[in-house]
Give the backbone structure.
Amino acid sequence: MLIRRMDEGKKTFDIDVIITWVDGNDEALNAKRAAYITPEEANEKDIAAPTRYANRGEINWCIRSINKFMPWVRRIFLVTDGQNPDIQSRIPIEIIDHKVIFEGYEQYLPTFNSLSIEAMLWRIPSLSEHFIYFNDDLLVCRAVSPQVFFPCEGHINCHGHQASLLWTKTWRKIKGIMGHPCNVNHIKQMMDASEIAGNSQTYIRLAHTPHPLLRSTLQEFYEAHPERLEQNIRNRFRSPEHFRTDEICYTLLQQEGRLHLQAVRPVLMRYYSRKGMMQLEWTLRRVTKSGSKVCFACFYALDQVSDEIYARLSQFVEDLLKED
């Protein structure tokens, strides 16, 4: 089904999904990364920790869940560095190599930085105007309609909340004084992006959910500010220079009245690798209990969980994704 209808009487439009993926078990890719990384970067967990590249089959769960619960998606674009997970999918899958989206900027390849890659996703050939960006550790848990992401053409539902730039910056300074500096992390990247997009008071605190985006908004911003594009792609690993591309899109749309903030907790279930079996069972019940509205699950750092935890998660996912 190639065309989705948002509401009766409204114009229909295509929606694509983009997933960025890396197989951290690929020895050739690991050797490539080792040739570029400095000792300082290698020792910084927020820059190049092995878990950022680890692969335990999450991509299979992610794509299968999209097939089952989002069958209205037109196409899945899988963005990789010369890799192919060879996954079966009823929804057409197209592999997009980094060289395609970095055309004209090949001097910045190879890159091992998801923020650089995210800044270039809008350059995928034939990408639809409305698209949804997934990380491969996300799982769709129940049937969701296109309106969950796009209430109408040119508008976005964003799962997050408004937060104070001043308060967050103050708290970050306090943490630094207490010996817990956060020079490279997602909160700073959101705040920097919000200020770059012209918001000096607040930023949108985003959660780890699928992120609906508009191709034209990103294209217009980066083509008008090529220096910002290069700022976001010139470092092969994460650095304090980087900012969140999705935050740019959301801030600009908010200024135009085309962004609709939605609460995160009702739709997202998260499981962290440091948690045990009791916490896992409690979080899984959030998905399966009667009346649950949880649409998305995120399993952080599956490479770090025990075999027992992984087996329980696998059982949960297989039950969830079994054919009716």
Notes: The radius of gyration is 19 Å. The first strand starts at residue 4 and ends at 5.
